[in-house]
Design brief:
The chain is an alpha+beta fold. The protein is built from two helices and eleven strands, in the order ββββββαβββββα.
């Protein structure tokens, strides 16, 4: 199927690349179908991806694997909120954080409080508000990555 995208123009997408969010996502409840796009076709995927609406070409959000910005990210989620996704395992769960990327890259943030949780087997997803009180809506990604780099350098010494 051909879809129009915000940053990649028109692309050909197979049905198995579409994820359904039956409740939509926060602020965009009317849009239910999404795909995940990468800036590169290379074998090694980048850390930042695009969460692209199938129904609205202008709706594309940058997303990131939470472990890239917080190595011990462990969201506490009410299990009831995940029931509609089907059986979840370590192998089929995909968690993504939405990001805000301003002109000054040092101010880039990720939303730790409301991750996107996807069951790769059923291709269903949900955005939830986690119960972790210390998780921020605007977690500074730049500072977090710099801190993780510094910690790795310390380990090498």
């Amino acid at each position: 199927m051909l879809i129009k995208t915000r940053y990649f123009g028109e692309i050909d997408l197979t049905e198995d690349k579409i994820v359904t969010f039956e409740q939509g996502i926060m602020g965009f409840e009317e849009y239910k179908k999404y795909t995940i796009l990468y800036d590169s076709d290379e074998e090694k995927k980048g850390n930042i991806m695009w969460f692209q609406s199938i129904e609205e070409p202008s709706l594309a959000l940058p997303v990131v694997n939470p472990l890239y910005v917080m190595s011990d990210y462990n969201p506490e989620v009410n299990e009831e909120l995940l029931k509609s996704l089907g059986e979840m395992t370590e192998e089929n769960v995909c968690i993504l954080l939405t990001m805000t990327v301003p002109k000054d890259i040092k101010l880039t943030t990720a939303n730790l409080k409301a991750p996107l949780i996807i069951n790769a087997d059923t291709r269903k997803g949900v955005q939830v508000v986690v119960e972790n009180v210390d998780y921020e809506v605007k977690y500074n990604v730049y500072k977090a990555i710099e801190k993780m780099k510094a910690e790795k350098e310390d380990e090498l010494c």
